[in-house]
Automatic annotation (TrEMBL):
Annotated InterPro entries: Gal_Oxase/kelch_b-propeller (IPR011043), Gal_Oxidase_central_sf (IPR037293), Kelch-typ_b-propeller (IPR015915), Kelch_1 (IPR006652)
UniProt keyword Endoplasmic reticulum, yes or no: no
Superkingdom per UniProt: Eukaryota
Pfam families xrefs: Kelch_1
Organism (species): Adineta ricciae
Keyword Iron: no
Bilayer-spanning residue ranges: none
SUPFAM superfamilies: Galactose oxidase, central domain
Keywords assigned: Kelch repeat, Repeat, Signal
Cleaved signal peptide residues: 1-16
Name of the featured protein: Uncharacterized protein
Amino acid sequence: MHVVLFISLLISTINGLIISQIRRSSLFITNSSCALVLNVTLPVGSSIQTCIWKCNHEDQCQTGVYYHENRTCLLFSEDCQSGKITSSGNVQTSVICHRRNQGSNNQCSRRNWTMTGNMNIRRHRHTASMLSNGRILVTGGLNVNTNLNSAELYDPSAGNWTMTGNMNVARYAHTTTVLPNGKVLVTGGLNAGPLKSAELYDPLTGNWTTTGNMNVARQDHTTSVLSNGKVLVSGGWGAGGAQNSAELYDPSSGTWTMIANMSIGRQFATASILANRTVIVLGGWTGATYLNSAELYDPLIGNWTLTGSMNDVRKDHTASILSNGKVLITGGLSNNYLKSVELYDLSTGNWTTTANMNIERSQHTASILANGKILVAGGYNGSSSINTAELY
Ligand SMILES: *[C@@H]1O[C@H](CO)[C@@H](O)[C@H](O)[C@H]1NC(C)=O
Ligand SMILES: *[C@@H]1O[C@H](CO)[C@@H](O)[C@H](O)[C@H]1NC(C)=O
Ligand SMILES: *[C@@H]1O[C@H](CO)[C@@H](O)[C@H](O)[C@H]1NC(C)=O
Ligand SMILES: *[C@@H]1O[C@H](CO)[C@@H](O)[C@H](O)[C@H]1NC(C)=O
Ligand SMILES: *[C@@H]1O[C@H](CO)[C@@H](O)[C@H](O)[C@H]1NC(C)=O
Ligand SMILES: *[C@@H]1O[C@H](CO)[C@@H](O)[C@H](O)[C@H]1NC(C)=O
Ligand SMILES: *[C@@H]1O[C@H](CO)[C@@H](O)[C@H](O)[C@H]1NC(C)=O
Ligand SMILES: *[C@@H]1O[C@H](CO)[C@@H](O)[C@H](O)[C@H]1NC(C)=O
Ligand SMILES: *[C@@H]1O[C@H](CO)[C@@H](O)[C@H](O)[C@H]1NC(C)=O
Ligand SMILES: *[C@@H]1O[C@H](CO)[C@@H](O)[C@H](O)[C@H]1NC(C)=O
Ligand SMILES: *[C@@H]1O[C@H](CO)[C@@H](O)[C@H](O)[C@H]1NC(C)=O
């Protein structure tokens, strides 16, 4: 017989997520058929909040069990409370559980996508960057056939969008990068032809100023801030087709320098920085074929190497590094517009699928919010620009 001596139900808002916390002063036997995602002993000084944080930041986690006495934090991928976890005795343990909304009556649910506020302007081939104040800056893009110089800010706490200063140059198929000083670097893109120009956004004033031009005019390229503070720009489309060239921006001088070429010219790829500071450039389009290949740039060696390929070919997807180090790939285009989502596990080198988005999108954006959720906004579905946004 399993006796729960007392249960206190605490409703608390942690990082904006609603958590139900069921505290049981009991011996807690994890007699669970649920899949264990993680079993960690937390450092001295940790609390249940640390276990909740781990659950929030582990994309598979729905239930966390915390043993106070030995600081063991177990994370499960399902709702393990309803009959799947048994308890008896006198050891204090807490069960924590994600809830999707107030009406869900303490039932855990898998992380899923929900709609949030619409942008003021429909746009695709725009960019999104998270500012140090937690807001998301969306810049430029196309509204059907109109080049946009407008920019808007998403407030995650209010779930709505406001306009900010306009860029000097209307552009789409450009990139934006948040620099260590908090300013946002915009590079290249398309306006009549591929652009060399770059500009800086100051979040404090909401205004834009121009900085040094790139050596190569390019659109649909990638940018990454390296650990040395310089910005790597790779690939894109320019004179002669898909570019294999790459260059570095020095924020202290506002100037650009060419570096080693990639092995393949690619546009519409993504570039992400792995935990070991290596840059991974994924997928894209050569002008003739969709790519699933990936290559790595090691800033210390200053060269490119090919690595394992994705399962699916795709361009115009997004790639986000989750707090557990995995890379989340959403949507994009191959032979169809995609709502599929894949996760890349760096430690195994394997790709797995996870919940689909509600809507097919390519040329959209994905941003990791402070609460660990991923905001996906806008995009294009083959017939229309999209103003909807969803959260994972
Ligand atoms: C664990 O669950 C199984 C099947 O539900 C049950 O037979 C067994 O007695 C349980 N063990 C404990 C220690 O509760
Ligand atoms: C978690 O790991 C600890 C230490 O390795 C082990 O004693 C315990 O049985 C594990 N718990 C589960 C549920 O796997
Ligand atoms: C922590 O305590 C629980 C309950 O006594 C036990 O099931 C678990 O195996 C312990 N974990 C470790 C790492 O000792
Ligand atoms: C996710 O959301 C979609 C649409 O809102 C719904 O149809 C689906 O059942 C949800 N999946 C889960 C696992 O909650
Ligand atoms: C956004 O939401 C907040 C809080 O509800 C409100 O104060 C603000 O006026 C809204 N802004 C816009 C642009 O709707
Ligand atoms: C920002 O731009 C506006 C419009 O050009 C200008 O009036 C304002 O002075 C600028 N603010 C700063 C801090 O540069
Ligand atoms: C890089 O590639 C371009 C064109 O693809 C070529 O002209 C150039 O010589 C290459 N640079 C190096 C250093 O190999
Ligand atoms: C960079 O990689 C290319 C191709 O693998 C190789 O030929 C070249 O020697 C490498 N350069 C350096 C500096 O490692
Ligand atoms: C960084 O991680 C990637 C992916 O696991 C690996 O291929 C690469 O060799 C690593 N680079 C370094 C310098 O450790
Ligand atoms: C990785 O994928 C291969 C082939 O599908 C499979 O054999 C292997 O077990 C997977 N590894 C992990 C850790 O999932
Ligand atoms: C594309 O989006 C528009 C606007 O939301 C919608 O009306 C249309 O059905 C969508 N087309 C496809 C193919 O999903």
